[in-house]
Amino acid sequence: MTDWLTYGFLQRALLAGLVASCLCGVLGFFVVLRRLSFIGVGISHSALGGVALGVLLGIEPVVAAAVFAALVAWSIGWLGTAARLHEDTAIGVMFSAAMALGVILLSFSTQYQSDLLSYLFGNILAVSRSDVWLLVGMAAVVLAGTALVFKELLFAAFDEEVARASGLPVQLLDYFLLTALALTVVVAMRVVGLVLVEALLVIPAAAAYQLARGYKGMLAWAVALASGGTVLGLVSSYQWNTPAGATIVVVQTVLFLLALASRRVRDTHARR
After folding, report:
1. Residue 120 maps to a domain
2. How far is CA 120 from CA 27, 50, 187, in A?
C-alpha cells in the first residue's frame, strides 16, 4: 500500500497537493464566508489573456498570467465598489471580457496553442521540483500575509458595514484577498491543475461550514478536509489507475456529502 511513496513523481505530487490543500483551505474559508465561490473559475480562465500576452511580449507566461489575473481581480473589486455591482456579477463581466481578450491574443500567436494552455492547466502527477518550490514559496508569502491581517479579514467577512464603521480599510482588505486568490489560482493551477484548484477553494470549506460551530473550527476543518481528501484521492488514483486530479475532486465531493449528512443528523437530534 505504501510502495507508491517510492516513486519520485508521486512524492512530488503529494507534497504539491498538500501545500495547495493547506493554502486553498485557508483562502477557501474566506471564499465561502464571502460567497465568492465563482472567483476561482473567473480568475483561472481570465488568466488565459495573461498567458497569451506574455508569449506575445516575450515575458514568462506564468508571471504574465499572475499579473494579468491580479489586475482582473482588482477590477472585480473596483466594479463591486464603484459600479455597486454584486461581486458575482462583477466576476462574470471581467471573466467574459478577459477570456475573450485571451482568445483574440492567442489568434496572433504562432506558438502551438496546446503548449500555451499547458501553462494554465497543469497535471499534479507531472509536477517538477521547480514547480513544487514555486508553489511552496508562493504559499509561504500568501499565508504569512493572510496571518497578519486575519482578524481584520474575518471581521470584514462577517459584517462589512460594521467593519467599515469601525475604521477598518475594508476596500484595501478586499484587494488583498482578491490578490491572494489571483496568485494562488494562477500558480497552483499551473502546478496541480485547474479543476483541482477550483475544487480545493470551495468544497473543503463548504464541508467545514457544515461541521464546525465556530470560525476556528471551520478553518481547521477546511484545511484538514482539503489535505485528507488530497491524500486519499492520490492513493485511490494510484490503486485504481484513474486521473489523479479528478479522483481527488470526487473524494472531496464525497467528504462534502458526508459532512452535509452529518449536519442533517445533528440538526435532527437537536430538534428532539
Report:
1. yes
2. 20, 10, 9
Please give the average pLDDT of every successive group of 10 residues along the chain, which has 272 residues.
Answer: 73 92 95 85 80 81 85 86 76 84 78 60 84 92 96 90 88 92 87 85 95 92 96 92 91 96 82 66
CATH number of the structural domain spanning residue 38: 1.10.3470.10
Domain with 147 in it = 3-263
Give ∠ CA 226-252-23 in degrees, rounded to 5. 25
Q: How far is CA 160 from the centre of its chain?
A: 23
> Cα–Cα–Cα angle for 120, 122, 125, nearest 5°?
175
Task: Indicate whether 272 belongs to any domain.
Answer: no
Place of cell 455597486: 84
pLDDT score for 84: 73
Residue from 119, 86, 125 nearest 247 by CA: 125
Cβ–Cβ under 8 Å, residues 28 and 202: yes
C-alpha span between 29 and 9 (Å, rounded): 30
Q: Which of 195, 187, 90 is nearest to 137 (CA)?
A: 187
The tally of domains found in the chain comes to: 1
**CA-based nearest residue to 23, from 164, 205, 151:** 205
Is 25 inside a domain boundary? yes
